[in-house]
Amino acid sequence: MVGRSKDKNETEPVAQIKFTILKDGTIVTDSDYLPNDVNERAHDAMDVLEQLLGNKRVMTKKPIPAKYAGKFKPRRVNIQTIE
């Protein structure tokens, strides 16, 4: 899935998110840097999928590259992660 930021100040407006739906309905997502507005929309979309499928998604947690550290704005803390 590809998203484009509407933030005029965003230096990397295009973002990609890979998601896989496993046989048991678990949603596994993986992405590199996501602009904050794309991140919000992606979470909202995944919330709907969680509700429809009845399962929680699993997000892979990666170290934040230094060039993104100042741009990153975490949205949630109660998400199951795989490290």
Characterization of the model:
The protein contains two helices and five strands. 7% of the residues are buried. The protein starts with a strand and ends with a strand. With 83 residues, it is α/β, with parallel strands linked by helices. A five-stranded mixed beta sheet has the order 1-2-3-4-5, with helices on one face. The model is unreliable at 77-83 (pLDDT under 50).
What would the principal axes of the Cα set say about the shape?
A: globular
Poorly predicted regions are 77-83
Overall radius of gyration: 13 Å
Structural class: alpha/beta
* Biggest sheet statistics: 5 strands, mixed
The portion of residues forming beta strands comes to 25-35%
Number of strands: 5
Which key terms come to mind for this protein?
alpha/beta, 83 residues, 2 helices
Per-chain topology:
Elements: E1 2-4, E2 14-21, E3 27-31, H1 36-53, E4 57-60, H2 66-69, E5 81-82
Parallel strand pairs: 3-4, 4-5
Antiparallel strand pairs: 1-2, 2-3
Short summary of the structure?
The protein is of the alpha/beta class.
